[in-house]
């Protein structure tokens, strides 16, 4: 991950430009719009405080809103994940995924979809659900109030998981919070769920088989990389769709830097 923001290079823009309607004549350059949005993601700047030399914030937000509503960010995210897997000599679709959650604080001025995490974290805000492959690429994301349980919410993600992972998907790893309704729902689709966590009856460090498939993802995939982007170190969004879109954009930027 680079230490400072840099604009899209020509190869990077070439990789994502097919997802935008470039043939239509426009007043504003779409490549610039994407660069500004990625700059916002990295710096955490407020919409209304965009530099004066750029188009006004309403214009940039218009494109952000259009692309999040029509699924453009999701489609780009999946395509770049597949490109990066091929780059490291893997098949485009994963056969194994990992599910994890992260509780984050919510802007004090926002009351929508707010709750307190019932675990020992006691975070007053929202919870993010991440479905990543074994190398930390984000495939599916969801955001909800932090007081909602992981497993029941993750059930609603199964349709997206099946659509994006394809027919190769065989197994999903997760911790104890997913070993219930989520695991049962996966079984209906002939997908195995394997709990990768320490037995509850054991204390202290215990090397658990397959635990290290999830734990590196916990650090590298679903938590650590969020710290590189100031826009998502905390949830500032009024709508859940905006929160999810910024998560996909963060993974998009990471994938673009790899290719």
Automatic annotation (TrEMBL):
Task: List, alphabetically, the InterPro entries matched.
Answer: IS402-like_dom, Transposase_11
**Molecular function per GO:** DNA binding; transposase activity
Q: Which GO terms describe its biological process?
A: DNA transposition
Q: Which Pfam families match?
A: DDE_Tnp_1, DUF4096
Transposase IS4-like domain residues: 93-190
Segments forming domain Insertion element IS402-like:
8-76
Xref: NCBIfam families: transpos_IS5_3
Record's protein name: IS5 family transposase
């Amino acid at each position: 991950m680079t230490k400072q923001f840099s604009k899209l290079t020509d190869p990077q823009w070439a990789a994502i430009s097919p997802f935008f309607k470039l043939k239509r004549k426009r007043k504003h350059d779409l490549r610039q719009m994407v660069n500004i949005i990625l700059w916002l993601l990295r710096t955490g700047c407020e919409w209304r405080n965009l530099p004066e030399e750029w188009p006004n914030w309403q214009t940039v937000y218009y494109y952000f809103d259009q692309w999040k509503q029509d699924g453009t960010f999701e489609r780009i995210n999946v395509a770049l994940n597949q490109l990066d897997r091929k780059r490291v000599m893997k098949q485009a679709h994963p056969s194994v995924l990992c599910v994890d959650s992260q509780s984050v604080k919510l802007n004090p001025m926002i009351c929508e979809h707010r709750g307190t995490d019932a675990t020992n974290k006691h975070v007053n805000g929202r919870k993010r659900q991440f479905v990543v492959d074994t190398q930390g690429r984000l495939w599916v994301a969801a955001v909800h109030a932090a007081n909602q349980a992981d497993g029941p919410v993750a059930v609603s993600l199964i349709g997206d998981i099946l659509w994006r992972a394809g027919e190769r998907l065989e197994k999903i790893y997760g911790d104890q919070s997913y070993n219930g309704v989520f695991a049962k729902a996966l079984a209906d689709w002939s997908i195995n769920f394997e709990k990768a966590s320490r037995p509850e009856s054991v204390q202290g460090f215990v090397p658990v088989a397959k635990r290290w498939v999830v734990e590196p993802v916990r650090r590298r995939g679903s938590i650590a990389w969020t710290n590189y982007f100031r826009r998502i170190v905390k949830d500032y969004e009024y709508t859940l769709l905006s929160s999810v879109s910024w998560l996909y954009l963060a993974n998009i930027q990471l994938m673009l830097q790899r290719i």
